Amino acid sequence: MTDSLRGAAAIVGVATAGLGEAPGRSSLELLGEAARLALADAGLGIRDVDGLFANTAVHSHPALSVGEYLGVRPAFSESSSIGGASFVGYALTAAMALQAGLCKVALICYGSNQRTESGRLRAKSGSQDYETPYRPRHPISSFALATARHMHQYGTTREQLAEVAVAARRWAGLNPEAFMREPLSIGDVLGARMVSDPITVRDCCLVTDGAGAVVMTRADRARDLRRRPAYLLGAGMAHWHMQVDQMADMTVTAASESGPRAFAMAGLSPSDVDVAQIYDAFTINIVLALEDLGFCAKGEGGAFVQDGRIAPGGALPVNTNGGGLSCCHPGMYGIFTLIEATRQLRGEAGARQVEGARVALCHGNGGRLASQVTALIGTER
């Protein structure tokens, strides 16, 4: 069954809007601009959309609010939320809906004005019954716990984690859309304000405005549209918990299941990946994901990212747009992994282009190391 999804659908349009700061604009206005630009990128219009996959951090019924705003009357819609990983998951759901004939043009979209709204996200993320008495500072405290455990268990150092932030900033320096582009050193990361020991502010993602949109169609239609398609080759999802205290092992995430499922569907392995776009809410996300997705053994993530290995010119380009650490993070970041991966496969990434990129991995993280969704997309070749 899953084999039939390999290459059956493709991304045919992508766009961003308002990355960084967009004063005076609502989340829906930003989302609408990204949607319009993504459809134009594909050579399509809003009237072509009959599949809507939308989420925001502020609407209780996102598909309804977004559909009304855009003027879309979808035959199929999806807005279930598993946090920032939702949008990578939507790529899989959209492929299923397209293959089943439930829709012909799928629009995946997100928008947020979190930064200019003073960092406020009104929607609640759910109860933390067991954690609340200890007054954690979520989500940062959760990731600090995982970071501290990885350091204790495997000897991972703060310097190694800082390599992740420095690599992201080096990529951001090549991306005119990135919000923070000024040089960053390991010393800068280590010397930054401590937020939740052992995490400094430079181990944390940005707080920005921004929107993103992705358009998907069946593969047979994709070949006739304006841009070179990026085909969905495989995808997998998994989640084991909501509250971080329910993790059986704070150094192992459900990516250890979502990754193998995606690679199995695609008929590929980590060695086939030319570029990886991984949700980096915090520096520890990259270390854990590289281990759990099979790029290195458990406990070796810190050593893996050393010496610029994931930076420009490194063996495995990771987050070539600058990621959530340096490009943008408007509340939920997952959709931007799909956008940047598509641009790399099209050869449209400018100074940050990875030469000869044919297979890209997109990985979304949701909640507190909770939901994990992995997708592999590739060129027609």
From TrEMBL:
<dbReference type="InterPro" id="IPR016039">
    <property type="entry name" value="Thiolase-like"/>
</dbReference>
<feature type="domain" description="Thiolase C-terminal">
    <location>
        <begin position="236"/>
        <end position="378"/>
    </location>
</feature>
<dbReference type="Pfam" id="PF22691">
    <property type="entry name" value="Thiolase_C_1"/>
</dbReference>
<dbReference type="InterPro" id="IPR055140">
    <property type="entry name" value="Thiolase_C_2"/>
</dbReference>
<protein>
    <submittedName>
        <fullName>Thiolase</fullName>
    </submittedName>
</protein>
<dbReference type="InterPro" id="IPR002155">
    <property type="entry name" value="Thiolase"/>
</dbReference>
